[in-house]
Write a structure and sequence with these properties.
This protein is an alpha+beta fold and 290 residues long. It has helices at residues 24-29, 97-103, 106-115, 129-147, 154-175, 186-199, 206-213, 217-228, 232-250, 255-261, 267-278, 282-288; strands spanning 5-7, 19-23, 40-42, 45-52, 55-59, 62-66, 70-74, 79-81, 89-95, 124-126. Keywords: DNA-binding, Transcription, Transcription regulation.
Length: 290
């Protein structure tokens, strides 16, 4: 049985907004139903802004160390977990796909997905003091509108401030040497990525995904080469391995059960496949993350 937590957007205070602001120290101190110190999947976007404290945050099995002025971008349907530290302070901005779509134009939404996509850019941004000043100012404006001044104008002010924040994060990444992909194939790649995440246990063939997208396998391979400089097969393998890791860590299923769930005809085939791509056996990986 799959035990991974799926956390959906639920803003009880402002249910129609599609956005929520939470102080990180308040979240970490809360007694809530979901255990956020365990890996969990979120059905919304998050921007995590650290203002004080040092610790780490896990995003899809990678531990990222942070200090003050660190920012994490976490996309919808990604798995992550918090480590509780009483010295950590900051903000979490939570928003839905619909809120993002209402915030930005269609072209800007496609581009913003790059900021939240671990295939295209690192989820961690370390910000220097000067660049963090306007971000802190934006956060003060958003918090003021969300908690104290909330009226018929607040939603628009929050949307615009978040819009500016996203572009400031893009600017910081570019200044730090990140390559921001501006290519006609970005939306096609993201569609391919989402299809693999949904169907990789059903099929591992590029041809099947090409048929779903209405293109040829050669075109799909060209899309992946243009955006992430990898073959379509390599992208499928990376996502499938991540999904297998999620089952290994977040379920009580046996290795044999996981192999059949992941679409392998024989458990030995998954054993070889997993070791080929990770360098360790499924059992070793599970033991490492107990």
């Amino acid at each position: 049985m799959i035990e991974i937590q799926n956390i959906k957007f639920n803003n009880e205070t402002r249910p129609d907004l599609g956005f929520e602001l939470i102080r990180l120290e308040d979240l970490l101190a809360r007694e809530i139903e979901q255990d956020i110190t365990q890996l969990h999947k979120v059905a919304f976007y998050q921007i995590l802004i650290i203002t004080e404290g040092e610790d780490k945050h896990t995003i899809d099995f990678t531990d990222y160390e942070y200090g003050p002025q660190t920012i994490f971008t976490i996309r919808k349907d990604q798995i992550h977990r918090f480590f509780k530290n009483p010295r950590t302070k900051g903000f979490i901005l939570i928003f839905t796909e619909d809120f993002l779509a209402s915030l930005l134009s269609h072209k800007e939404v496609a581009r913003s997905h790059e900021l939240f996509n671990e295939f295209l850019t690192s989820p961690k941004i370390s910000v220097d003091h000067e660049d963090f000043k306007p971000i802190a100012s934006l956060m003060a404006d958003i918090e003021l509108e969300y908690t104290k001044n909330y009226d018929e104008f607040s939603s628009g002010i929050i949307r615009n401030a978040l819009h500016i924040l996203i572009y400031r994060l893009f600017r910081i990444k570019v200044r730090q040497g990140a390559t921001v992909v501006q290519h006609k194939y970005v939306s096609d790649f993201i569609q391919f990525q989402h299809l693999i995440e949904e169907r990789c246990f059903e099929t591992k063939k590029t041809l099947d995904y090409a048929n779903l997208m209405g293109c040829t396998p050669k075109t799909l391979n060209n899309v992946c080469k243009a955006i992430v400089n990898k073959s379509s097969k390599m992208v499928i393998d990376e996502i499938l391995v991540t999904q297998i890791k999620r089952l290994l860590i977040n379920t009580t299923m046996s290795i044999t059960e996981i192999a059949y769930t992941a679409g392998f005809e024989e458990p030995s085939n998954m054993y070889k496949y997993f070791k080929k791509h990770t360098g360790v056996t499924p059992e070793m990986f599970r033991q490492q993350h107990l």
